[in-house]
Amino acid sequence: DATLSIGLTGGVRAALARADLTTRKIDAFFDAVKKRRPTGRLAVLSGADEAAFELRAGSYVGVALGAGTVATISAGGASSQLAAGGRVASLATDLLGVEGRAAVIGDAEGL
């Protein structure tokens, strides 16, 4: 069996900050995973860790494709990451909230 690693990202960080999710629930989730599979790292990633992992993945693909320098930009519902040249940044965003507001009050007003 392959070892499973799970990194929870911006949406979980945001839910924790809002107290919509507790570390106890996350620990229970990780415990359930451990009972079913061999595991590696199970963690809530910091924004910097998330950006660094994305850069690592992008660099892996870049090498496979013969690219030189690789930089990554990603955006999810709760955070966006930028990484290049060993430097990383993570920005808290609320794209899911914007989408929800736009659905309720109309796209133009919601955005």
What are the key terms here?
flat, alpha+beta, 25% strand, two-stranded parallel ribbon, three-stranded antiparallel sheet, 111 residues
How would you characterize the overall build of this protein?
By secondary structure, this protein is of the alpha+beta class. Helices cover 51% and strands 25% of the residues. The chain has helices at residues 10-18, 23-36, 47-65, 95-105, 107-110, and strands spanning 4-8, 39-44, 71-75, 79-84, 87-92. Strands 3-4-5 form a three-stranded antiparallel β-sheet. The protein is flat. The model has no long low-confidence stretch (mean pLDDT 89).
Distance between the termini: 46 Å
Rough outline: flat
Number of H/I helices: 5
Structural class: alpha+beta
Number of strands: 5
Classify the beta-strand content into a percent band: 25-35%
Radius of gyration: 17 Å
Order of helices and strands: EHHEHEEEHH
Topology:
Blueprint: E1 4-8, H1 10-18, H2 23-36, E2 39-44, H3 47-65, E3 71-75, E4 79-84, E5 87-92, H4 95-105, H5 107-110
Parallel strand pairs: 1-2
Antiparallel strand pairs: 3-4, 4-5
Brief rundown of the structure:
The chain is α+β, with helices and mostly antiparallel strands and 111 residues long. The protein has helices at residues 10-18, 23-36, 47-65, 95-105, 107-110; strands spanning 4-8, 39-44, 71-75, 79-84, 87-92.
